[in-house]
Amino acid sequence: MTTKEPEIDCPRCLGKGFVNDADIKRLGRQLEWTSGLCGYCVGIGTVNAYMLKNKEVNDLYLTSDLPLVEREKYLSNDQEALDRAAIQEVNAKLMIGFIQNYYLNEKKSVDEIVEILIQDYGADANKISQIKTSVTNIIKHTNPDVDGIQF
Ligand SMILES: [Zn+2]
């Protein structure tokens, strides 16, 4: 990656270094993301022109959770990393569909859905609070009628 490219305010977080609900809404990732450290600029607030050409600003794989080694592979368009990103995107869509179905059709609560994900789908029980946050976020953005509900 070149260092000669000019630095530009990060278009994901608008230079703040973290994404808030407004950023997430602007980027159309309400189902996938919650507020936190910006995964596009990793909190720096600026990116270079190469980055903008290389990866979409709302790229699903570029989150702050992505390990640095994998991030570097992905940014250099390593084929295996690109494949892993594609698989993760499919898995994320499937998981959102599962959660929406359990909530809307089977009337399961957040806690029940978290339990199902751990028991039946092998979700990591050590990450229960993150899983709960994700499930809550998906439900919150699934049905506009429940926007006013406090979770
Ligand atoms: Zn950023």
Question: What small-molecule ligands were found?
Answer: zinc ion
Query: Can you list the strand order of the major beta sheet?
Result: 1-4
Which structural category do the helix and sheet elements fall into?
mainly alpha
How would you name the oligomeric state of the polypeptide chains in this document?
A: single chain
Number of helices: 6
Number of β-strand runs: 4
Helix content: 40-55%
Radius of gyration, CA atoms, in whole angstroms: 17 Å
> What gap, in angstroms, lies between the N and C termini?
43 Å
Globally, the shape reads globular
- The domain tally reads 2
Main β-sheet, in a few words? 2 strands, antiparallel
Describe the protein in words.
The protein has six helices and four strands. It has 151 residues and is mostly helical. Helix 3 (68-75) packs across helix 4. The protein is globular, with a radius of gyration of 17 Å. Zinc ion (ZN) binds next to loops.
Give short descriptive properties of this protein:
151 residues, mainly alpha, two-stranded antiparallel ribbon, 4 strands, disordered C terminus, binds zinc ion
Give the gist of this structure:
The chain is mainly alpha-helical and 151 residues long. It has helices at 21-26, 49-54, 68-75, 79-104, 110-121, 128-142; strands at 7-9, 18-19, 36-37, 46-48.
